[in-house]
Amino acid sequence: MKKKHWKQHVTTVILSATLFLVLIFMSGKLGMVAYASDKISGEVGTLKWYLEEQKDVVDEKEQVETALVISGKGEIPDYKNPEDRPWNGIADQIEKVEIKSVKGKDNITKIGARAFENLPNLSRVWIPSSVRIIEKYAFKNCPKLDFVTIMSSTGVDEEAFDPDVIQDVICDHMYMGRVYVADDIVMATLKKDGKCSYEIYCSGCGDYVDSAGDQKIPFIKSIYLQKKNYVYTGKKITPEVIVKDRKRKVLEKDSDYKLKYSAGRQYVGTYTVKVNGYNKYRFTKKLSFIIKPQGTKIVKISAGKKAFTVKVQKQSIQTTGYEIAYSTNKNFAKGTEKKLVIPSNKTTKKKITGLKKGRKYYVKACTYKTVKGKKYHSRWSEVKTVRVK
């Protein structure tokens, strides 16, 4: 009896383990989680999805539909192959797709390519105003789908739906924009506020919503370059311009101001950018920035009798020559520093004489380029030391 009981116990354990492995396999295969309540669900990046039975009234009749509900923030991804979708294993059960939207929170903004392609029983879809893009083939080849409700003027690819699907767009004017009335604008300047009237429209569908008048346009408080000094790279340099009004609001390029950069700004020299007010602003401001030559380094330094010889790394592109600075003070204090110019970038070795016997000297080097009579220096190299004989 004990032996028979033991065999029954082993059989039960094996069957339980097999069932458990099957459930794990199916869960991973379908990208879903099965709970005790038989609710099928899963996650796609920052999004959550689940399948549920919903009661609804269709054509004045109450009916139960199997709905795929998706919520969260971000984008429903693109799929090259519908088989890669986590809900593909339950495709034939999906009768409705509902994209959840929570007021005041970030929601789903895009429905990716082939996200709901080839759903044979899909008949209803509800898309909230948060969705701004519906990609190619998103709902293609869904034979029972003939009507879609879209709550905003969304960017729908022309091949997102089958040709006979009716798209009912109901814009809720969530995306507001403003158009200034040109006749009423007094432009803001660098010193004075302006004023204007404007019309409010929905940037989703373009419908007129409201109007307002006598609104102040704060004057421009600051205009500056994010960076003024650059090092030669051989590529054209275009510094970013920051424009702020008196309320510290950052203005938008091409909408509030336009920029014009001087030519040739890939070489060593001084260049300008002209900032002109635009639309509701009237001002002009010219800003300057500098491109410096690439630096060098000391590759060898050797002591001589009351002298030392220094050799620098050759830097022949966009340079005229080199400068050597030396001092008996490690901080190159005022009055202790002396400089020597090497006028050709082909000459990389120089002997410095007339020094004090036995003294320790601190030495550094840089490149320079002369443009229209003005010298542009690179950064100084790392400091080296030498004790003369």
Question: Topology, pairings included?
Answer:
Blueprint: H1 2-30, E1 33-34, E2 40-44, E3 47-58, E4 61-72, E5 74-76, E6 96-99, E7 108-111, E8 124-127, E9 133-134, E10 147-150, E11 155-156, E12 166-169, E13 176-180, E14 194-202, E15 208-217, E16 220-225, E17 229-231, E18 241-245, E19 257-261, E20 269-277, E21 284-292, E22 298-304, E23 307-312, E24 321-327, E25 338-342, E26 349-352, E27 360-371, E28 374-377, E29 384-387
Parallel strand pairs: 4-6, 5-7, 6-8, 7-9, 8-10, 9-11, 10-12, 17-21
Antiparallel strand pairs: 1-2, 2-3, 3-4, 13-14, 14-15, 16-18, 19-20, 20-21, 22-23, 23-26, 24-25, 24-27, 27-28, 27-29
Organism: Dorea hominis
Protein name: Leucine-rich repeat protein
Domain Fibronectin type-III: 292-389
Q: What does this protein look like?
A:
The strands form 7 sheets. This protein has an 8-stranded mixed sheet, with no helix packed on it. Strands 24, 25, 27, 28 and 29 form a 5-stranded antiparallel sheet that branches. The chain has a 4-stranded parallel sheet with strand order 5-7-9-11, with no helix packed on it. Helix content is 7%, strand content 43%. It has one helix at 2-30, and strands at 33-34, 40-44, 47-58, 61-72, 74-76, 96-99, 108-111, 124-127, 133-134, 147-150, 155-156, 166-169, 176-180, 194-202, 208-217, 220-225, 229-231, 241-245, 257-261, 269-277, 284-292, 298-304, 307-312, 321-327, 338-342, 349-352, 360-371, 374-377, 384-387. It folds into 4 domains: 30-169, Leucine-rich repeat, LRR (right-handed beta-alpha superhelix), CATH 3.80.10; 176-217, no CATH class; 220-292, Immunoglobulin-like, CATH 2.60.40; 298-387, Immunoglobulin-like. The chain has 389 residues and is mostly beta strands. The protein has 1 helix and 29 strands. Residues 292-389 form the Fibronectin type-III domain. Pfam families: LRR_5. This is Leucine-rich repeat protein.
